[in-house]
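FORM 12-B: Structure-to-Sequence Request
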């Protein structure tokens, strides 16, 4: 994880500023003097690998929104650590969340389909990259899903075909302060949904490989502070650059 973070920021801040448009595809930077469409960018690497387009993503490195929101979430957690300093279990859970999110590499994601064929054939799916710096993440079909949040061992877990969210989640140990009724699922396309994991609302929907499951904190009946924190962490997860 630390290597990914170091590589990411070294690429971002070591690039020359003369080009009008800079697009980093994984770890290789390409520079263009004029705005360029997605299809033209992807044509450079279209034959370089067996890309699994559903997990591809574009990040706008010129937009610092995600980095600011990460700091806001960490600030929220620091305040809660003070509030719960006398509650050992809750304090440990919040410390774990703080450590996890501190280690996340984030960048402002542009929610859009990323597919060479779609970009070539559908005008609406072939946007123009305007002046600025962008990151495109491409990979083969992943064989993992990622768990974070209120779990004892956040990280990548093996994805198996025909395996439901309930089955996958049951194999991941939660902390005592986890909500046992639902989790947030960030799909590879960046959409966020809540899925049931309790006996009364079990969701047997299969997960796409590369999905990111965020286990939320259990909240009291009138505890809007923790409810807000849960939602903010799930929203921030959309902008997380997951390790490959």
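FORM 12-B RESPONSE
SEQUENCE OUT:
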């Amino acid at each position: 994880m630390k290597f990914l973070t170091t590589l990411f920021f070294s690429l971002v801040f070591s690039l020359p500023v003369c080009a009008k448009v800079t697009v980093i595809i994984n770890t290789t930077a390409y520079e263009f003097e004029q705005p360029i469409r997605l299809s033209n960018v992807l044509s450079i690497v279209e034959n370089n690998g067996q890309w699994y387009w559903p997990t591809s993503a574009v990040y706008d490195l010129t937009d610092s929104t995600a980095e600011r929101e990460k700091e806001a979430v960490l600030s929220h957690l620091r305040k809660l650590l003070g509030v719960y300093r006398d509650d050992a279990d809750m304090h440990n859970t919040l410390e774990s969340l703080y450590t996890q999110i501190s280690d996340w590499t984030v960048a402002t994601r542009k929610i859009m389909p990323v597919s060479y064929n779609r970009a070539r054939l559908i005008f609406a799916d072939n946007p123009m990259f305007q002046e600025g710096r962008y990151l495109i993440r491409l990979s083969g079909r992943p064989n993992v899903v990622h768990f974070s949040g209120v779990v004892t061992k956040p990280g990548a877990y093996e994805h198996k075909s025909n395996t439901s969210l309930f089955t996958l989640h049951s194999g991941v140990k939660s902390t005592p302060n986890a909500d046992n009724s639902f989790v947030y699922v960030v799909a590879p396309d960046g959409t966020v949904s809540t899925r049931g994991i309790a006996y009364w609302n079990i969701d047997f929907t299969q997960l796409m490989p590369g999905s990111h499951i965020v286990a939320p904190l259990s909240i009291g009946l009138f505890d809007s502070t923790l409810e807000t924190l849960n939602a903010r962490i799930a929203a921030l997860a959309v902008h997380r650059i997951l390790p490959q």
